[in-house]
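Office hours follow-up: a student asked to see two folded examples consecutively, so here they are.
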Amino acid sequence: MPTNNHFPGQKEGEQIKYLVRKHWIIYVRILLFLIATFLVPLIGFFWLEFGFDFTANTKKVITLLFLIYLEILTLITFIRWLEEELDLIIVTNERVISIDQVTFMHRTISETELVQIQDVKHIAKGVMSNVLGFGSLQIQTAADKIAFIIHDIPEPYKMARKIMDVRDECKEKLMARHGGHHQPIGKTV
């Protein structure tokens, strides 16, 4: 899925190889949340509105409270969607950039050079993950902890393999440039 798009902080000559986005299952989860949190209050609203003989002012207050609830529910649903939609891993010919939308106003952006990647691991847990082909992707660098993780991506095994292939290609170019000796990025021979 190579693309010619650009992103902020892109280096000169750096090309995007892959954009790792979330699987469509996240939309189903958000929709189920919306339905579950909307149906029960809707039934309660109609029960109060039509099941009891309230005064006109009481019915207006009930309607107003229900509309306020719907506004808050819409805002919460939008924030949940935004937090999932903005999670992204960008794989270029030089590095991997992870954009993690932690909460509504909290985003973490991390990056590592391709040659620093030690391992890329895919995880598919459960029947639904295996049947629908989604799971998690973990990218490990030389550091002790996992550098990047993104959940609920389509075909995590294939993406792990693609990232390792891009990493291997980058290492080969680096070794060819330095006469077959691996040099750390930023060092000259």
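And the second, which I mentioned at the end of office hours:
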Amino acid sequence: MVLLESQIKLKTGDIAPDFELLGIDGKKHSIDEYTKYQGILVIFMCNHCPYVKAKTDALNELYEKFGDKVAIVGINSNDSTNYPDDSFENMKKTAQEKGFKFDYLVDETQEVAKRYGAMCTPDPFLFNNKKELVFHGRIDNAMKPDDTPTEKTMINNIEKLLAYKKIEKDFDPSIGCSIKWKEN
């Protein structure tokens, strides 16, 4: 397990890179379909990472609290050939076991992760409904899987987005396992 901190590639105000990815629901999804919401939260994640597993309840809380106003989209970009726990079938199982109600998409080519500059799992990007980046970073301040959060960073930032308030700290790095890149 290589531990990484998210890095800046997309800057505040940059437009979300387009994608068309297969979801565990069997349908293709694009970033444009989510612009009907007031915000879009794209989270690069996977099934096996202990840092993602530790955020399962937080992800479900985000959906329960904001799912009618903010599209929440999980994207798994890990190489499932070398990491079978992250296969498409296991994505379906994980979503069912963890109670995910948000879209969970597979980025088989890893091109979407590269265009976003995603580095680790989880690596969340929050956009407004014009697809402009307003925040890139952590879900909360529990930076190790066993830590208990004392600040719900993403909830606070989504509330600011929905209230049309500026998010002062627009980059607050997430930390997690490195995305498992395919070997060329």
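Two things to take away from it. The chain is about 25% helix and 25% strand. The CA atoms of residues 90 and 127 lie 28 Å apart.
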